[in-house]
C-alpha cells in the first residue's frame, strides 16, 4: 500500500511541477521587451523577437475611435509586447521607446514632435511648425489672420504673381494681366 501511495504522490508532484513551469512561462510572457522582425501593414500585424522567443503575428495598438491613427512599426524598432494571459499569440504591441540606434529627436519639454524621413512637425505653446520638402493641402483653405510669404516665387494658376512678376501693358491703357 505505501508503495502505491508513494507512486501517486510522485505522480502528483510531477504534475504540479509542470503546472508551475507553465505558469512561470506564462508570467514571463505577460510583458516582454521585443524587437520587430517583420511588419505586415495590410493585416496590421508584426512578428517580434522577445529576447529569443519569436512571436506569431500580433497586432500593434493604435487609436481607433472617433480619432483614428496609423503608425506602423518599423523592422528593428523596440516594442513592448503585452500578453495579459501569457499567450503570445493573443498579445499586442506598444511602442517601446528610444534606443541607441534611434534616439529621442528633441530635448525640450512642453512640446510635441514627430519626424518622418525629411519631414518634421513640432508644436508648443508658441505655435506649430512643419518643415518638409513639399507640403500639399487638398481642400479649401481659410486663413483668419495675416499671411506672410517668404520665398523666391509665388504662382497662381501657373502664373507668376510673386515679387518678380511683370504686367503686360498696352500704353496708354491700364496694366494688363501678369505674365
Automatic annotation (TrEMBL):
Residues 13-40 form a coiled coil. Gene3D superfamilies: Gp5 N-terminal domain. Residues 153-179 are annotated as: Disordered. InterPro entries: Vgr_OB-fold_dom_sf (IPR037026). Residues 153-167 have a biased composition (Polar residues). Keywords: Coiled coil. This is Phage baseplate assembly protein gpV. It comes from Peteryoungia aggregata LMG 23059.
